[in-house]
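Hi R.,

As promised on Friday, here is the backbone we talked about, encoded as structure tokens. Could you run it through your design pipeline when you get a chance and send me back a sequence?
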């Protein structure tokens, strides 16, 4: 954590200072399990800061999913003419108000920040009380934020620095609620991100039914189940503090996804009202 590389200076140290500042605030008001709730609060704050980027990315992803059948049609119609395919694809993007870069650029900006937050929490929850005082105080910007005493690393009686796989002997199968909840939340978020299609076939511009790409559809279905299982397994083997962060991150993502969907529904309603007025 005290390594003077650029990543630490730009991201890890500022995020660590923010975590400690939230911890001191919660401790000041005698909030229980201050470290655990500091992790939750910091995750929410960073998600709020990244919200405009995430919103733009989710909107673009949603639009891309809606035009996926049309893209499949274009690929079949112009499979032997790459130049025409590119032109028609860009035309389709323009008609639906899609900027492909709007989906990639926000993700590229967010990834270092999210990885910085993950790196901080991974280090913090693994530190012993003595190590926390020594190592964290070395990178604190203000003397008033320095840790005078070791912080409590438990959250509702469970140690944040130990994994459920190690705690199962002491606490029994109840500790499996954490990875199961993590997998369930991830599944729910993934389910929301896959917009269902109206039918399994689509009509191309030649009025011939075109079947969806079976392989792509199968991969999407598999990822819907495999990814949550993987995340659940990671939650089982990694420290509880990281599961606390990931679950908060996912819940906030679910709320954002719902907000994007609601935003699109409102836009459809406004377009319908405008159309009714014009017809009237």
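Update: got your reply. Pasting your designed sequence below so it's all in one thread:
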């Amino acid at each position: 954590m005290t390594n003077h590389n650029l990543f630490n200076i730009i991201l890890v140290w500022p995020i660590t200072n923010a975590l400690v500042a939230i911890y001191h605030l919660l401790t000041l008001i005698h909030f229980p399990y201050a470290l655990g709730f500091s992790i939750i609060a910091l995750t929410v704050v960073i998600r709020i800061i990244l919200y405009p980027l995430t919103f733009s990315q989710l909107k673009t992803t949603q639009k891309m999913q809606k035009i996926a059948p049309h893209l499949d049609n274009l690929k079949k119609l112009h499979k032997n003419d790459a130049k025409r395919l590119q032109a028609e694809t860009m035309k389709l993007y323009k008609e639906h108000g899609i900027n492909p870069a709007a989906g990639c650029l926000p993700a590229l900006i967010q990834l270092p920040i999210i990885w910085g937050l993950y790196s901080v929490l991974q280090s913090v929850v693994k530190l012993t009380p003595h190590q926390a005082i020594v190592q964290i105080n070395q990178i604190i910007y203000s003397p008033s934020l320095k840790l005078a005493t070791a912080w409590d690393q438990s959250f509702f009686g469970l140690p944040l620095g130990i994994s459920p796989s190690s705690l199962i002997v002491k606490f029994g199968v109840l500790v499996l609620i954490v990875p199961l909840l993590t997998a369930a939340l991830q599944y729910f978020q993934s389910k929301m991100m896959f917009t269902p299609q109206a039918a399994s076939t689509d009509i191309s511009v030649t009025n011939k039914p075109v079947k969806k790409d079976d392989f792509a559809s199968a991969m999407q279905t598999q990822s819907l189940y495999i990814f949550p299982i993987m995340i659940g397994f990671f939650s089982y083997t990694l420290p509880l503090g990281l599961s606390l962060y990931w679950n908060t991150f996912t819940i906030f993502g679910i709320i954002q996804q719902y907000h994007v969907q609601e935003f699109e529904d409102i836009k459809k309603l406004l377009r319908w009202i405008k159309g009714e007025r014009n017809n009237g």
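One thing I noticed while checking it: The CA atoms of residues 64 and 79 lie 20 Å apart.

Thanks again,
M.
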